[in-house]
Amino acid sequence: MAIKVFIDGAAGTTGLQIRDRMAAETQFEVVQLEGEDRKSPEARARALNSADFAILCLPDAAAREAVQMIDSDVRVIDASSAHRTSKEWVYGLPELSAEQAEAIRGAKLVSNPGCYPTGAILLMRPLVDAGILPPSFPAPVVAVSGYSGAGNSLIKEYEDARASGADIAPLRGYALTMGHKHLPEMQAYSGLASAPNFMPMVGAYAQGILLYIPFHASALARPASKDDLHAVLSRHYQDSPFISVQPLIEAGSTEYLRPDALNNTNKVHLYVLSNADESQFTLAAVYDNLGKGASGAALQNLKLMAGV
């Protein structure tokens, strides 16, 4: 018998990507609302409660509303930021720790990670747990994402400008008052005592994230080399099918990192970078904001929860 999945918000960017990724997963049957039912709260409630799993691809307020409609045993994956630090919800990052995948597998309520926090947490949490980064680490996080992560209005703005040849900013810094909604999530699951200093940007390309965490060696809890940092991350992710720690890049290299290098996958590449005398380090992550940063992670969690 097929496993029934209702995607609430299936017409949005994340919902459409989940549908596309599920196309090859024959064990799942997508519950769909047709015609006028798409506008009916009653039909939506029936769909939510008739499924084995519901994936919420909605704004935060609508996601909370959807949860209130559920009165059955349906299991929920919420792709919004509404429940990411709620104690009643399991955080949907299986690679967080040895126990996290099992917690997701047995959970009724799973909150999908945000796109930016995914890379920041994957880089910092193993180093905090290993005692190399202190919980007091004043984490600077600098990241650029494709415009697909910024919602339908900005997607339309960029794509209309591209079609018409109109001028549009090649790169936008935003959240300039330092109050980005991902900060509580980054702090909570990185193991930090205070929120990172986060500077996000949107680039004039569709999808893909490049995230940097630069710091001086004096910020470490104890002396450590780039080899030490690399070894900790490599051990933590050695059994992960999606997270890979890339080889160290030697001084003088002309290599560069592309934010779109892993588009349309669920993969993450992690890097440890340093200067020649290892007095300065940068941790880096490359991944698809619509993949491991959204729809790919949702499908990964769905398959864990469904046992497939």
TrEMBL record:
Active-site positions on this chain: C115
Keyword Oxidoreductase: yes
Ranges where the Semialdehyde dehydrogenase NAD-binding domain occurs: 4-104
Pathway: Amino-acid biosynthesis; L-arginine biosynthesis; N(2)-acetyl-L-ornithine from L-glutamate: step 3/4
Group of enzyme by EC: oxidoreductase
Location of the protein in the cell: Cytoplasm
Known function: Catalyzes the NADPH-dependent reduction of N-acetyl-5-glutamyl phosphate to yield N-acetyl-L-glutamate 5-semialdehyde.
Keywords: Amino-acid biosynthesis, Arginine biosynthesis, Cytoplasm, NADP, Oxidoreductase
InterPro entries named among the record's database cross-references: AGPR, AGPR_AS, AGPR_dimerisation_dom, AGPR_type-2, NAD(P)-bd_dom_sf, Semialdehyde_DH_NAD-bd
Coiled coil stretches, renumbered: none
Upper classification of the organism: Bacteria, Pseudomonadati, Pseudomonadota, Betaproteobacteria, Burkholderiales
Gene Ontology MF terms: N-acetyl-gamma-glutamyl-phosphate reductase activity; NAD binding
GO biological-process terms attached to the record: L-arginine biosynthetic process
Pfam families: Semialdhyde_dh (PF01118), Semialdhyde_dhC_1 (PF22698)
Name of the protein: N-acetyl-gamma-glutamyl-phosphate reductase
Organism listed in the record: Allopusillimonas soli
Catalyzed reaction equations: N-acetyl-L-glutamate 5-semialdehyde + phosphate + NADP(+) = N-acetyl-L-glutamyl 5-phosphate + NADPH + H(+)
Any single GO CC term annotated in Swiss-Prot or TrEMBL for this entry: cytoplasm
Enzyme nomenclature, EC number: 1.2.1.38
Family of this protein: Belongs to the NAGSA dehydrogenase family. Type 2 subfamily.
